[in-house]
Fold:
Amino acid sequence: MGKVLLLCLLVGLSGGEVIAQVPPTKAAFIEHLLGQMTVVEKVGQLELVGIDRERTGASIREGIAGGLVGGIGGVPSPPYGRELQQVAMEHSRLKIPLFFAADVIHGLHTVFPVSLGLAASWDMSAITLAGRISAREASAEGIHLTFGPTLDITRDPRWGRVSESYGEDPYLASRIAGVMVKAYRADDPRAADSLMAGLKHFALYGAVEGGKDYNSVDMSTVNMYQFYFAPYRAAVEAGAGMAMIAFNAIGGVPAAANRWLIKDVLRQQWGFDGVTLGDCRAIEGLVFHGVARDLRQAAALALRSGVDMELCDDAYAKYLPGLIASGEVEVGVLDEAVRHVLSLKYDLGLFSDPYRNLNPTALGPVETRLRRDAARDIACKTFVLLKNAHQTLPLNKQDSIALIGPFAKSRRDLLGSYCGDCDEQHVVSIYEGLARALEGKATLLYAKGANFTTDTRLSERLKHYNTPLDLDPRSAEALLDEALDVARRAKVIVAVVGEPWSVNDESISRAHINLPASQRRLLGALKSLDKPLVIVLVNGRPLDLTREQAQADALLETWFSGIEGGNAVADVLFGDYNPSGKLPMTFPRSVGQIPIYYNQLNTGRPFNSAAPWKYMSQYIDEPDGPLYPFGYGLSFTRFELSDLQLSTPVLHAGEQLKARITLVNTGPRDGETVVQLYLRDRVASVSRPVKELKGFQKIMLRAGERRVLEFTLDENDLKFYDAQLNHVAEPGEFKVQIGLDSQDVKEQSFELR
Structure:
């Protein structure tokens, strides 16, 4: 901000008298403003008020005019947002602008695949494009900051918010974190199409016990640093401006009361200087956690622990003025939180342009602003081909097809949770996508076949949560009979099964992750017809697919695929797009294997399938290993890796090692795949994972094409946290493993000296 502009601002803030001795710096501007604020006005800056909650428009305006609101959460129309900002700029005493924030996790109007699906693309260019489009749409609506990306490493698919995460691996999630934060904000946080990122949920929210949302986490500090902290830190280093503080307790201390977590790790160790925001009612949760006797004590505890702003709570608004007046909370603690909020607004350029993108008139129709081509292409990149026996796929557009299943015509489910405006009218269903692809070529027959579930208790529970299931009132027998009749008249059966978005949402965890009995019955009946059976999955988490894997001739994972999901599914089924997605999470054989993940620590009695023995780490009623490993995914063509070579057998500090390998497309089609590099530290001061992802390349090859790929490693790639939390690379033997998934790898050794 220039000197003239700063002086103009100071004039406005001081009632017309220029304070000439104030230097034109951000810090000086904030301190000048802070010095004019009452305690009540300071507390007001810590209030993020949701416009879609209980408060009426009149009460919001009254609060803004009184300096009692710091920011607005939700997606107001630009005219309404401008109206609220006008109240702040024209009627509040100090005329401090509001900022506007919303959940823009995987799109606002152009809804892309859910985060887990985006991670399955392993395509940083596609993810960058999704982030840029999301930022442009959100900023055009007057939104300054998004509550995202969601960076919780999770190894438990029972958790209801798995679809919001980037999976189980810290390296992949960290890469995506950096890409997304930078894609949102572009090169300048003040730019018209910029969106400030707010990382969440800090911290370890995806590691909750039993996969139950809001549950506690109990793990070693070394484990936190080694695996779970990395994506959050990557987001901080990329420029995230807000950190949302989680609900869960960590080692008995709730995140919103965890001074070590917020002040020591986030701020001191990582250098985060943005705003911390308690997740919705996280401060109130301190009472239920049993670390505060009442909301008043909770407010004091949260602020002292480093939670700057509250969301949905009224703890700060009700109790902080009294706590400051009584001396129970030092005014300096309050001032520090307010500085963070004012600094965010300064960085967003709101003091110089409070009406940024808050247009006085409504924007044009949403449909004209959608980026459908991008949504379709990105969705295609996220699909993972899990099985393709006898080259069942791609399908012939001349063959009659029976499209059957409870999600074949669903639109809303393709959007997933936290889907921006969630308008299903913009969605292309799978039925619509196939119908367009087959128009004038072949017959498409349809039957629902079954409801998602026949569990009336579950249906009633979801109805109570305002997420009712779309259930066909006909009997299970009538639905099945219709499906069989339709299937008998077709050459190929495409069954669209899975789970609705409403069981992949906040506070919705599942104890069982297999398909419900109604869908299993349907698939069993379709299989008995002895026709090619293609199973298309619509879901937001890894499922137990042991039975379905055996039944299917082809099995395609499509996640919740966004507004163009139906067209994208058709593109892949008919071979207009060759699938290239790879799993960002391990798929278990059964729920009893959970947690199951590829980068596990070895045991003192590791399982050896070549020489089985009683006294090994194993289940006696389940084969060892996953159904589908991390990084797995097939193609319509075939890829082979060979001739792994290392540039040196010894790596010295300050030097680099090159790993080269040859990739060949030996199949009949052009295609894309992800070549993955893993490392194993053979001997260290603490037990190390059996392998860790350290690099990947997504490569397109024409049929018959050969290419030599090169990966570069140095000492930093070998570092880990030892028992004293030192980030070190210890001398010794390492294995380089390169493959098309985490299990099928080529291997060479080198030594670090």
Q: What stands out?
A: The CA atoms of residues 80 and 260 lie 40 Å apart. DSSP finds 24 helices and 26 strands in the chain. Confidence is low (pLDDT under 50) at residues 1-23.
